[in-house]
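Morning!

This is the sequence you dropped in the shared folder:
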Amino acid sequence: MNYIQKNLLSGEEIKYVARLHFFLFVQPIILLLIGAFLASSPKEISAMTRYAGLLILFFGIVSLLSRILIKVGSSYAVTNKRVILKTGVISRRAVDLVLAKCEGLHIKQSILGRIFNFGTITVTTGGVSSSYPYIADPLAFRKEINTQIG
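The structure's back. Tokens below.
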């Protein structure tokens, strides 16, 4: 049972669950490909190039592991009573926002975000802002929040 289901109130129903976009993994994949290419370079190429490839490969693996932890530890949902936003595996940051208290929901999409349909959602309540990047289909998330408020 995940975090959202464990923390539902009585009479509360999940209306929308947001997912993290695959674009979260693009940077580690690029680092891994470049690192593997440089590390497996022929002997004629300098040893420095191979060591640089191994270093880039290491950073790619570290980046991939951190992104996997982000993917595993993130839960975003809209229920008929509140918005639930949780991140973290080892340490946890959770925002349970009653729909009536939702002051602002900002969506930021880059050009690639518009093309591949992902973005950063920033929730504002009581002067406090929390940002959540790489949300797949952020406009659907906003639409569901507005539907539940209205």
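Headline: DSSP finds five helices and seven strands in the chain.

More detail when I'm at my desk.
O.
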